[in-house]
């Protein structure tokens, strides 16, 4: 592996809520080089930075909800935590492209504010940004209208694939603009109207009855070696493992399986 590997701590949020520092130590012991924060969630940024340094984990980035990014001093807090990148984790586009223009201007303003604090803004996609507007994907419109010096990509490779696109081709398309890449694997039989968002917050039993499952890296449908190679060639600085809830295994076990698979390559 040429690239360092981080864990998006949202993947183990149940453990994080119970013991933040203890979870960081476990993540380090598994063999991760760093973490991506799911936000500070009210924690003191200097204290978070101290804990990360004590454990020996790098922290290149954090996801931060748009509402929080709009707060006065938001980017200052994350700069104090030591992160270089802040990602937009989710935006609502309404019915199709109802909020497209509004969202573009919001992201532009956030990117400008982040830059003032030495932070680069990233956009983390889901599948709905691949809906076409006048023959062009929403995601491509966003990156066309906001220059690369303000906004970089954070491709979530699960959602790129789920949208019917190729993660490798998108990484090639945005080479030089993809510093952090989310590795996420899944399984689906492609039938019966898969609705993975509907699984959020559902019980394990409810998730078992669907034809979609988030899985550890290397245990699903993704061609992980090709994605890693494309990430390296695109100039990525970090690979970031992320897994949403599984129906069959604890979150820490999934995180361990992912890093062990990646180390085996």
Strand and helix map with partners:
Layout: E1 5-8, H1 13-18, H2 20-30, E2 34-37, H3 45-55, E3 58-63, H4 66-69, H5 74-80, E4 85-88, H6 100-116, E5 120-124, E6 132-133, E7 136-137, H7 138-145, E8 151-154, H8 157-162, H9 167-173, E9 180-183, E10 185-188, H10 204-208, E11 212-215, H11 224-233, E12 238-241, H12 251-264
Parallel strand pairs: 1-2, 1-12, 2-3, 3-4, 4-5, 5-8, 9-12
Antiparallel strand pairs: 6-7, 10-11
Structure description:
- This protein is of the alpha/beta class and 265 residues long.
- The protein has a single domain (5-264), classed as TIM Barrel (Alpha-Beta Barrel).
- The protein has helices at 13-18, 20-30, 45-55, 66-69, 74-80, 100-116, 138-145, 157-162, 167-173, 204-208, 224-233, 251-264; strands at residues 5-8, 34-37, 58-63, 85-88, 120-124, 132-133, 136-137, 151-154, 180-183, 185-188, 212-215, 238-241.
- It is globular.
- The mean pLDDT is 92.
CATH superfamily: Divalent-metal-dependent TIM barrel enzymes
| CATH structural fold name | TIM Barrel
By CATH reckoning, the class would read Alpha Beta
Strand arrangement in the largest pleated sheet: 8-5-4-3-2-1-12-9
* Quaternary structure type: single chain
What proportion of the residues is helical, as a percent range? 40-55%
What distance lies between the first and last C-alpha atoms, to the nearest angstrom?
7 Å
Largest sheet: 8 strands, parallel
| Share of residues in strands | 15-25%
């Amino acid at each position: 592996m040429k690239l360092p590997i981080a864990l998006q701590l949202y993947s183990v949020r149940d453990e994080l809520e119970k013991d933040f520092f203890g979870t960081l130590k476990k993540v380090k012991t598994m063999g991760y080089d760093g973490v991506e924060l799911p936000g500070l969630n009210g924690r003191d940024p200097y204290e978070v930075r101290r804990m990360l340094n004590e454990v020996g984990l790098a922290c290149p980035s954090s996801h931060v909800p748009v509402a929080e990014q709009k707060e006065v001093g938001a980017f200052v807090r994350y700069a104090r935590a030591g992160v270089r990148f802040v990602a937009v984790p989710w935006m609502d586009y309404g019915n199709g492209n109802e909020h497209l223009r509004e969202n573009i201007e919001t992201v532009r303003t956030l990117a400008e504010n982040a830059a003032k604090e030495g932070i680069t803004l990233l956009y983390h996609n889901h599948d709905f940004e691949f809906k076409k507007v006048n023959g062009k994907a929403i995601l491509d419109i966003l990156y066309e209208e906001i220059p690369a010096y303000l906004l970089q990509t954070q491709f979530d490779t699960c959602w790129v694939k789920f949208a019917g696109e190729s993660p490798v081709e998108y990484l090639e398309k945005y080479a030089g603009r993809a510093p952090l890449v989310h590795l996420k694997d899944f399984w689906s039989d492609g039938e019966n109207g898969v609705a993975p968002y509907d699984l959020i917050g559902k019980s394990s039993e409810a998730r078992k009855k669907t034809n979609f499952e988030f899985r550890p890296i290397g245990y699903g449908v993704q061609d992980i070696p090709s994605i890693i190679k494309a990430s390296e060639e695109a100039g990525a600085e970090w690979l970031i493992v992320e897994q949403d809830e599984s129906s069959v295994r604890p979150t820490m076990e999934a995180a361990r399986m992912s890093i062990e698979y990646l180390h085996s390559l």
